[in-house]
Amino acid sequence: EISLPPREAEPDSLDEIAKMVTACRRCALWNNATCGVPGVGPGDARIMIVGEQPGDREDLEGKPFVGPAGQLLDRALAEAGIDRGSAYLTNAVKHFKWTPRGKIRLHQKPGAGEIEACKPWLLAELSRLAPQVLVLLGNTAARSLLGPGVQVSKMHGLIEAPHLASRVILTVHPSFLLRQVDEMKKEIEFRQFIADLRLAVV
Ligand code: URA
């Protein structure tokens, strides 16, 4: 069962949200994670970018998008003309979900219950920041804020969701690009990713 924090405990700043995320136990993922990973970025960011969940590096460093997917995102943002430092980056789920595979911690997709449990944090970040542009990277971010019917393989680009932000962009997750084995397809998808991100620049 998911319960919101009592009213008096509602966070009223991004810093406070970050502190509460670090200590969050709303689902079981904290058990195997190093720490909760809150969003980072300026409190007056115009663009908010939402990923899936922290990966191995992010879990160790406590910051979003610092591993391989983050590096690819950095390249794409630079090509799209977006300064990463001026955007607010966060995830739909704030703890790393993984399973041991030999010496590595293999990423596992968060389930519907974990996405729901974490959604109040994402909504708190969104309402505190009130960005003009919201960029959803992949299906987990889309599922959290738009519902389970939305799939990035079926639609991408500008999405009509004025209750979230005046411009909402749905695009692929950079990990999807990292997984592509066909170099040509990877390049085509990367170009499309940049084109989607450019929609954030108005
Ligand atoms: N993938 C994500 O969705 N978020 C991160 O922070 C890192 C990898």
From TrEMBL:
Residues 38-198 form the Uracil-DNA glycosylase-like domain. It comes from the Bacteria. Belongs to the uracil-DNA glycosylase (UDG) superfamily. Type 4 (UDGa) family. This is Type-4 uracil-DNA glycosylase. It comes from Luteolibacter rhizosphaerae.
